[in-house]
Design goal:
The protein has 268 residues and is an alpha/beta fold. It has one domain: Rossmann fold (3-Layer(aba) Sandwich), CATH 3.40.50. 36% of the residues lie in helices and 22% in strands. The chain has a seven-stranded mixed beta sheet, sandwiched between helices.
């Protein structure tokens, strides 16, 4: 996408195998699975698919997937990973090089059952037009999955780092500098829910992502012991669905920084 993310793309690619990224991708996959059964197969669009972690998983489950991204480098990463998949999985993945701003020019109206838009809205100063476009390409009764920075807990990370000027600003200013060196924007859950409702998208559920691990150093490695990783993921999954952990603003390192709402398009 022609957004601020371009400046941080190489940092993003370099950190894909770190614990924070593995936790993010695994939790989102589990949360999607709770809302998206394998049968019948669905038509899935991932807006800003990047390296394609989620659409590859969905294609393995039998869904027909399309990945849209403006980065030919990230799409090349996706194609390289796809080449290692069985033939039936490869047939269920299509990649499109293009900008999210042109969504309705690239895809017909109501052409997808599911639209994913993970870690994208934060790079749009005004996300309304993109939400409009998502509402156009998803079919009535379809599912929209968003992953956004949580504006209600934006002060938590700088507060834990004792960066008091940034912490104070974060209570009122939804713009921030993220860990890949890019200016971005957070969303408050109530405001995002209202914006989706204006577009006929009703939020059916929402989850915290990286409740327990978001403040870890960005280069923290994945544990060598698979049992330790699974225990960590089980705790993260529980925290992301349990109050007060997923929404509290208490000054503790176990409150989510990202919110993952699952919205359904109202039938026409």
């Amino acid at each position: 996408m022609s957004t601020g993310f371009v400046a941080g793309e190489q940092q993003w690619r370099a950190r894909m195998g770190t614990l924070r990224q593995v936790v993010r991708q695994e939790l989102v996959a589990r949360q999607l699975a709770a809302h998206l059964p394998d049968n019948p197969p669905r038509r899935v669009l991932d807006v800003g698919c990047g390296q394609g972690t989620q659409i590859l998983r969905l294609a393995r489950r039998g869904h027909d997937t399309t990945g849209l991204d403006s980065s030919d480098t990230l799409l090349a990463d996706l194609e390289a990973a796809l080449a290692l998949e069985p033939g039936d999985v490869r047939q269920r993945v299509r990649t499109v090089l293009g900008d999210a701003e042109h969504l309705t020019e690239l895809f017909p109206r109501e052409s997808f059952d599911v639209v994913l838009c993970h870690g994208v809205l934060m790079y749009f100063t005004e996300p309304g037009p993109l939400l409009d476009a998502i509402g156009v390409v998803v079919r009535p009764g379809g599912l929209v999955s968003l992953l956004v920075r949580n504006g209600d807990a934006l002060a938590l990370r700088p507060g834990l780092q004792r960066d008091w000027p940034t912490t104070l600003r974060a209570f009122d200013d939804m713009s921030y500098g993220n860990r890949i060196g890019v200016r971005a924007r957070a969303d408050r859950r109530v405001e995002l829910t209202a914006a989706l409702a204006q577009r006929g998208l009703a939020v059916h559920d929402w989850f915290g992502v990286r409740v327990l691990t978001d403040t870890l150093p960005f280069d923290t490695p994945v544990p060598d012991d698979d049992r330790e990783l699974e225990a960590l993921l089980a705790c993260e999954e529980r925290a992301g669905t349990t109050e007060p952990h997923r929404s509290s603003q208490q000054r503790r390192p176990d409150h989510r920084h990202r919110v993952h709402p699952a919205a359904q398009a109202e039938p026409g």
